[in-house]
Design brief:
Blueprint: H1 4-127
Length: 139
């Protein structure tokens, strides 16, 4: 053996020791990374589960809102139908009021005419001489 061989062997053993230490550190780092990755995956799964739950609640809420909107639309339609009926009734009432106003006006005119005629009759009866049998003397 030459003197260079033991130094060379020592250098190889030293390099091997460094490589072993690096491999051990890499193995430890790998385990830590695997553990971290596992924890991250678990957290992501929990987050995903929560998101799924939130999405499910949102979907249920959206369905309830759709149902409420449908009920509201139906209510608006019923109210429109009621409004249409009320407008028809109001138009009929307005026509009745016009007819009543016309009839009342005609009645008032007839009463006025009759009042005038009655006054004429009274005036005639007051000034017409009577013979006691309810008839005038000229008859």
């Amino acid at each position: 053996m030459t003197q260079n061989q033991p130094n060379r062997l020592d250098a190889i053993e030293a390099t091997q020791a460094v490589h072993s230490q690096i491999l051990n550190e890499l193995a430890l780092a790998h385990r830590e990374l695997a553990s971290f990755s596992t924890r991250q995956a678990e957290r992501q799964q929990q987050t995903s589960d929560r998101h799924d739950e939130v999405l499910s609640r949102l979907e249920n809420s959206a369905n309830r809102h759709d149902e409420a909107l449908t009920r509201l639309e139906n209510s608006v339609n019923r109210q429109q139908e009621t409004l249409d009926r009320h407008e028809t009734t109001l138009a009929r009432i307005e026509r009745s009021i016009e007819a009543l106003t016309t009839s009342t006006t005609e009645t008032i005119q007839l009463v006025a005419q009759n009042s005038i005629a009655i006054r004429e009759i009274w005036r005639y009866l007051r000034y017409e001489p009577r013979n006691g049998n309810g008839r005038g003397e000229n008859e």
